[in-house]
Write a structure and sequence with these properties.
Elements: H1 6-23, H2 28-31, H3 35-45, H4 50-63, H5 67-72, H6 75-81, H7 89-104, H8 113-116, H9 124-135, H10 144-155, H11 161-171, H12 177-190, H13 208-212, H14 235-248, E1 251-252, H15 253-259, H16 265-277, E2 281-284, E3 287-290
Antiparallel strand pairs: 1-3, 2-3
Bound molecules: iron/sulfur cluster (SF4).
The site of iron/sulfur cluster (SF4) has 14 residues, from helix 10 and helix 13.
């Protein structure tokens, strides 16, 4: 088994630092790294592409400039601002996190990763991203994009989660870490994708997989996400349609089902029950409405 030596790390680090300015994307949460705004962006980015996050993120932080403003608002207002992002459980988790920040952290987003990880909906990746981008803490940020870069460019073999964590932390070196983390994310998102764009990749010259060949190590590495299941015709799509209908007003169950034409009523009832169990929708009399309306 081959391992990466310190020279490999230094060479890759230099190559990435050199091309980092050309990778930068003009994202508003990078230009204004307020901790709350960064936390909101990272929760939204967990399962949604950057291009779909920019608009909802801007509306969200304009409506709720602080965690306390979000915590004091009803969940229904948060769900309305989540339109277009999908995976609505994240909206409830973010609302719950805002309440915890208000009640346990005096309204201030904590900077320690151990405290950040206590917040609902915040796992290792999100905690490290907030600590790095908002507070300039020296922690590596490893999402699916970075995990692909590590497995291909540095290791040229599949990596376990602890290996990827140790490798990324070692790769940070002594220089500025937030911009380095951002460059890794940008490289993965723009070039080292599931189907990589090696011919135009700015670090191809120092990439082990490119130089040594072999089977692509990324798909078998920990932290590299598999393709999402089809959205069209899925329960996720029905959930989105139900929530979209309820964003306008509460509806009787019969009226709601009538508006979901094309979807089978029995299935819609099951999906609706799931939304109620998740705390996103509530019954009121004979009707249903967004939770906390
Ligand atoms: S050369 Fe290809 S595999 Fe290597 S880092 Fe660039 S895009 Fe990824």
């Amino acid at each position: 088994m081959t391992t990466s030596g310190s020279n490999d790390y230094a060479t890759f680090r230099r190559a990435l630092r050199r091309c980092a300015p050309s990778l930068v994307r003009p994202l508003p949460w990078i230009e204004h790294p307020d901790p709350w705004a960064v936390l909101v962006s990272e929760v939204m980015l967990q399962q949604t592409q950057v291009s779909r996050v920019v608009g909802p993120w801007s509306r969200f932080v304009e409506a709720f400039a602080t965690p306390t403003a979000c915590a004091n608002a009803p969940l229904s207002s948060v769900l309305r601002l989540w339109a277009g992002l999908g995976y609505h459980r994240r909206a409830k988790a973010l609302h719950d996190a805002a309440r915890m920040i208000r009640d346990e952290f005096a309204g201030v987003v904590p900077r320690e990763t151990s405290q950040l990880r206590r917040l609902p909906g915040v796992g290792e990746y999100t905690a490290n991203a907030v600590a790095s981008f908002a507070f300039k803490e020296r922690v590596a940020v490893v999402d699916t994009n970075v995990a692909r870069v590590l497995a291909r460019a540095l290791a040229n073999r599949p990596l376990s989660a602890p290996e990827a964590r140790a490798m990324s932390q070692r790769l940070l070196g002594r220089g500025e870490s937030a911009s380095f983390n951002q460059a890794m994310l940008d490289l993965g998102a723009q070039f080292c994708r599931s189907v990589p764009l090696c011919a135009s990749c700015p670090v191809a010259r120092v990439c082990r997989w490119r130089l040594e060949g072999g089977a692509d190590p990324a798909p078998r590495s920990a932290g590299v996400s598999r393709p999402q299941s089809r959205f069209e015709g899925s329960d996720r799509q029905v959930r989105g349609r139900i929530l979209a209908q309820l964003r306008g007003s509460s509806l009787s169950t019969a009226a709601l089902l009538a508006r979901l034409d094309g979807a089978e009523p029995a299935r819609c009832r099951l999906v609706l029950d799931g939304l109620i169990r998740d705390g996103l929708v509530e019954r009121r009399g004979r009707g249903v409405q967004l939770a906390g309306s």
